[in-house]
Amino acid sequence: ELPMDIPSTEQLIADHKEFMENTQKRQVEVDRICKAKQVKQSATKESRKIPKSKTPITEPEFRSPRVKYLWDKWRNVWMLEWERQRVLYDHLAYLKEKERADNFSWDDWRRRFLKFMNHKKSRLTDLFRKMDKDNNGLIPRDEFIDGIIRTKFDTSRLEMKAVADMFDRNNCGLIDWKEFIAALRPDWQEKAPD
């Protein structure tokens, strides 16, 4: 069970990094033991013709079953070590995303999104018209979230769920994009055709 706070998770990552460094230092000893007991592969005429990049990587063969056991266990430790590191970093990313969503502010998100769209020189109406496939002014909630994320705007799925919740008040799963733009830009009004 991983801790649900960032400082404890960061400490676990630091401890694991130290563990990985210590294991790396021990690699020399394991190599020394295993290389001495390895069976040398004889080079045949056929293997000389195959370029090194094409030769298949084979499992090393050992004279002693105990050395083979050590080699397998050591490789397993390395695999578990890298997997643990991945899990810790994924958990830290999740906690940071959760913290950002817990401290969600519509005004901050709105300012960041408008700045992003202005920087891209994109028009909001074009973005939402593209998402509104059947031109009824409503965008399915998941398409709305995915559409904003696809713009490469720096937001998270948790943050986008909070934004979608604000505009899917009746929980029907649809976002009125004109209402959304009106909230983003209070000065916006759709120009009616003449």
TrEMBL record:
<dbReference type="GO" id="GO:0005198">
    <property type="term" value="F:structural molecule activity"/>
</dbReference>
<dbReference type="GO" id="GO:0005509">
    <property type="term" value="F:calcium ion binding"/>
</dbReference>
<dbReference type="GO" id="GO:0005882">
    <property type="term" value="C:intermediate filament"/>
</dbReference>
<dbReference type="GO" id="GO:0030056">
    <property type="term" value="C:hemidesmosome"/>
</dbReference>
<dbReference type="GO" id="GO:0042060">
    <property type="term" value="P:wound healing"/>
</dbReference>
<dbReference type="GO" id="GO:0045104">
    <property type="term" value="P:intermediate filament cytoskeleton organization"/>
</dbReference>
<dbReference type="GO" id="GO:0016020">
    <property type="term" value="C:membrane"/>
</dbReference>
<dbReference type="GO" id="GO:0005737">
    <property type="term" value="C:cytoplasm"/>
</dbReference>
<protein>
    <recommendedName>
        <fullName>EF-hand domain-containing protein</fullName>
    </recommendedName>
</protein>
<dbReference type="InterPro" id="IPR043197">
    <property type="entry name" value="Plakin"/>
</dbReference>
<dbReference type="GO" id="GO:0031122">
    <property type="term" value="P:cytoplasmic microtubule organization"/>
</dbReference>
<feature type="domain" description="EF-hand">
    <location>
        <begin position="155"/>
        <end position="190"/>
    </location>
</feature>
<dbReference type="Pfam" id="PF13499">
    <property type="entry name" value="EF-hand_7"/>
</dbReference>
<dbReference type="InterPro" id="IPR002048">
    <property type="entry name" value="EF_hand_dom"/>
</dbReference>
<feature type="domain" description="EF-hand">
    <location>
        <begin position="119"/>
        <end position="154"/>
    </location>
</feature>
<dbReference type="InterPro" id="IPR011992">
    <property type="entry name" value="EF-hand-dom_pair"/>
</dbReference>
